[in-house]
Design a protein that fits this description.
The chain is an alpha/beta fold and 272 residues long. Helices cover 42% and strands 13% of the residues.
Length: 272
């Protein structure tokens, strides 16, 4: 029997393609690999971490169709606008965007200034909006149907449990949360827009392993989010065609608690 005659109707369909920003390292990498494991072809965005991006792409390609590498400085408007069309030109189509790239520099109310706020706003707010805009335009040109595209914006549980540390970062993520609602309204019915808000998920140079473990356990469930938890929520948002205009909190309930400082700046009160 001819093999083509027995192939399923879906066999000839091209793989769904997702652009993951900040996919070279940390949480973006975990999201990219999880998407590939679910069958998505992944366009790996990075700014300067090329070798890390190559490693991410290889990990994705071993699990799904080969994607591609795309560098861009998301603080530059022209580069942000050009990113998704570049992916389309190389891979043929894009069906979803995960806005994982973020700037996270410290300031507070006393040190706040236009320059720091603008740096955060460009990367954390403006670039995700421009990429959502580009996806909507691309899908319109394809004549795509309802709920055929999705944008997932990575937010932060601290928006629901605020503290004034990392002032500009927090403002930029609050603006992105508002944009998630507005874009869900503006880009319907073709594009869904969903927020995913992790809790404390990965350690950093600001925390020892012991301190991270102690803070990670400070939640109603006794554990905050893991990279796998967050990536799983992103996959759920990408695949569930009825979700839009809302935020999934993936934090073990940390948003239900009150923290006076950012996790990275909380003092260890258990020491004698």
């Amino acid at each position: 029997m001819n093999a083509s005659a027995t192939a399923s109707p879906d066999a000839a369909q091209p793989p769904r393609t997702v652009l993951v920003t900040g996919a070279a390292r940390r949480l973006g990498r975990e999201i990219a690999i999880a998407a590939a494991r679910a069958g998505w072809r992944v366009a790996v965005h990075y700014q300067t971490s090329r070798q890390d991006a190559i490693d991410t792409l290889a990990a994705c390609a071993s699990r799904s169709s080969a994607g591609g590498l795309f560098d861009a400085d998301l603080s530059d408007e022209a580069a942000a606008r050009a990113l998704l069309p570049r992916v389309v030109a190389e891979l043929g189509a894009v069906d979803a965007v995960v806005n994982s790239a973020a700037l996270f520099d410290f300031d507070d109310a006393a040190s706040f200034g236009h320059a720091c706020m603008e740096r955060h706003w460009r990367v954390n707010t403006a670039a995700p909006v421009l990429l959502a805009q580009a996806l909507a335009d691309h899908l319109a040109a394809r004549g795509a149907g309802p709920a055929s595209g999705c944008v997932v914006n990575l937010l932060d549980q601290k928006l629901f449990n605020p503290n004034p540390d990392f002032f500009s970062y927090t403002l930029s993520k609050a603006a992105l949360q508002a944009a998630t609602t507005l874009l869900a309204q503006a880009l319907a019915p073709t594009v869904r827009v969903v927020g995913v808000a992790p809790g404390l998920t990965l350690t950093s140079h600001l925390l020892s392993d012991e301190r991270f473990a102690a803070l990670h356990a400070q939640s109603p469930l006794g554990r905050s989010s893991t990279p796998e938890d967050v990536a799983g929520a992103v996959r759920f948002a990408l695949d569930n065609r009825s979700i839009t205009g809302t935020t999934l909190l993936v934090d073990g309930g940390q948003h239900l608690m009150r923290f006076e400082r950012d996790f990275s700046l909380m003092q260890d009160t258990s020491a004698p």
